[in-house]
Give the backbone structure.
Amino acid sequence: MLRRLSLVLLLAVLASPARAQSPAEPGMSTVVEALEVVAKAPGPAMWRVSRNGSQVVIMGTVSPVAHRLAWDDRRLRRNMTGARQLLAPSWPVGGVKALLSYALGDRSKIRVGGTSTLAARLPADLADKFSAAAAAAHQPLSKYDRWKPAAAGIMLLGDFDNAAGLSRGKPIITITRLAQSMKIPVKAAGKVDVAKVLGDGTRLDDAQNIACLAVAVEQVYRLARAPGELGQAWAVGDLRAVQRLYTPRTADQCPLLNPLLDKEIAASVSVVQDALQTPGRSVALIDISLLLRPGGVLDRLSKDGSQIDTP
């Protein structure tokens, strides 16, 4: 249970979408807006970044998606054929040592004593949504009572994924295996320090804990009506639907998320720019929230002088 909880924590933090730009409707990258066309190419959305004869074809990814999600990968396969590398998202490091330290001491820092329920410790509106989210995850509210809100939120995400048949590893795992079968080297955009993520989680104050729970609850709340809708929208390149389903308006309030999101945007831009220094074609997998947001990966690459179109 401890190992599963910790890995879900890391995946949830990395996969959580970028913050919305307004309370009403999230904004979108100016590059994406300019390239959006009525007649979409088959399969998930992709962008081609070019400079000095070198190309990086970017596929935006989402999480979670159905374990058995069917999607048209022909365009991806065409662009991977002859590619010199696949650029994957940042990978976790130091996991075993961090999990051992967490098991021996830090775990107690995210548990609570007393007899009060978690729902009773939350603002009324969040408590109502939390109850609905727990029901969507097919779990009793009492399961989360002895955990601080942020940890409860991570558990809730894992429980909902299991109940809804969703995976936070796919489609990245599927595409990475495809690259390996095609003898294409895989390179990570960067590294994520597991110990730091877990340590930061133990130092949240009450307000920050509640803010991080709100992000998890909102994601479950958005997906619960049709858990497979996000993956289906991604599979056909419906960026408006992806943006609607994949952008919690509360994410900027959780201090666990923003530093990692900002770091992942910078790492993604850097790894694409590095790849553009060498002739040939690379393929990159980047969380689509980092591509769709204004000032995100595509906007920064365009500002730096790269040409961007759709393959």
